[in-house]
Amino acid sequence: MRSAPPAVVIGAGLGGLSAAVHLAAAGREVTVVEAGREPGGCCGTALAGPYRFDTGPSVLTMPGVLADVFAAAGEDMAGWLPLRRLDPSYRLTYHDGSHLDVLADAEAMADQVRALCGPAEAARYRRFRALLGEMFRAEWSSFIDRDMTALRSLARPYALLRLAGMGGFRRLDRLVAAHLTDDRLIRAHTFQALYVGLSPRQALGIYAVIAHMDTVGGVYFPEAGGMHAIPRALAALAEKKGVTVRYGVRATRVEADGSGVTAVRLDTGERLTTRHAVVACDLPRAHAGLLPGGARDWRLRRPRFSPSCVVMHLGLDRRLPGQAHHTLHFGREWASTFEALRRGRPQPDPSLLVTHPTADAGAAPAGHATLSVLEPAPNLAAGRWAHGRTDRLVERMLARLAGLGYGDLSGAPRMVWDPPAWAQAGHSAGTPFALDHRFTQTAWLRPSGAARRVPGLHFAGMHTAPGVGVPPVLISGRLAAHRILEESR
């Protein structure tokens, strides 16, 4: 590798840190600039008195992807970031009073399905579980763990034919309903469509692989420090490998000439000379002012954003014995709730995701606990966020929680994030879930990981392929680093 000036990574979120670690592990000098005071980006943390909350993802799947970042630097993740598998991954509760614990073990999960839905449905579940595994194997190497910056990346006819034969290009709800008959089990394998910003009626069947990641691969959680422990560990790893991480410093402009990237300007007045930059922050906002004109991506001309959410974090003066880490309380309504989001309205009968991270002992004082409640909500691109809407939704959430047996939580210390708050934190359209994953924003059709007209300018994060979620974001950082290393040879 020929000598090169330091690469500059803009943003110390998971994508930026992944890129920095992979570059440094290959011998490149790297500077990371982060506007915030600590690493994390979307995987952040916040305090409310003695309570600490994760303000980003609560779900970690595919831990091998994270372990690969440490392995690239010659380290064993277990020594840096011990994880435990959640058991159950989720507890799903239904309006009829029944519930289903989602377990990664095949036999144990089949027993759960048999007890809830009967032996015939359990047999169908076994066959469907096998199909999910086949779909995952067909998609992983060809479309998820693959660089999609060139059109030839789509030239995988055999993989496409395999996926088509398995129903991957049907709508997700129809694919699942073709294999399972109990509505409760169908919901258990289609609610994940919201992770990619779509209803099960809109999402393609290929996104059934998210259900595979959740229900078969398992869900994990750090043994200490919550989900924010992940970026903290990655930042420490990067610094051990020689990366310079500068917090409280904002990049204001990526400069370029006819040969490509030349420098990154900072709000301190400094100019960091470089031939390679990785933009790992909110991409639509970066295009609005940070990037040179030649970096415009036609895929962002009419971006379609995922729905947002209202999240209420609560500090409890007690623990909740027997409460699962993740509990999804389904409402009675289903199709109408997705239609409301599409029209820019709050859901009439939302499903609530309740997170009770008992594994994170340091999040609350002894004998106390934290609770986070997420309700899907329209993003700001779908319409104005009406005055007083957040207060009304919070009151409804508190009443719903009381009805579900959580007691009166109206006096508990709380912190609320709503679409305007997400927008103020730097998320376009007030959603922390970036662009949705409709067909026209998937794979090669998602914003490119490299600026074709500005050599040396690369992108990582949720807005690029593979897309939203901890594993895809980590992969996007690795792909950006590998492109830079290829260019440097």
Strand order, sheet with most strands: 7-6-15-16-17-14-18
Radius of gyration: 22 Å
Determine the mean pLDDT.
94
Number of helices: 15
Distance, first to last CA: 5 Å
Q: Could you tell me the number of beta strands?
A: 19
Unreliable parts: none
Structural class: alpha/beta
Task: Tell me the β content.
Answer: 15-25%
Largest sheet: 7 strands, mixed
Task: Write up this protein.
This protein has 15 helices and 19 strands. It is of the alpha/beta class and 489 residues long.
Please render the helix and strand layout as text.
Elements: E1 7-10, H1 14-25, E2 30-34, E3 45-48, E4 51-54, H2 63-72, H3 77-80, E5 83-85, E6 90-93, E7 99-102, H4 106-117, H5 119-144, H6 157-165, H7 172-177, H8 183-188, H9 208-216, E8 220-222, H10 229-240, E9 244-247, E10 251-257, E11 260-266, E12 271-273, E13 277-279, H11 283-290, E14 308-316, E15 326-329, H12 335-342, E16 352-355, E17 369-377, H13 389-403, E18 414-417, H14 419-424, E19 457-459, H15 470-488
Parallel strand pairs: 1-2, 1-13, 2-9, 6-15, 13-19
Antiparallel strand pairs: 3-4, 5-8, 6-7, 10-11, 11-12, 14-17, 14-18, 15-16, 16-17
Helix pairs in contact: 1-10, 1-15, 2-15, 4-5, 5-6, 5-9
Summary?
By secondary structure, this protein is α/β, with parallel strands linked by helices. The chain is built from 15 helices and 19 strands.
Features:
alpha/beta, 489 residues, 33% helix, 15 helices, 7-stranded mixed beta sheet, 5-stranded parallel beta sheet
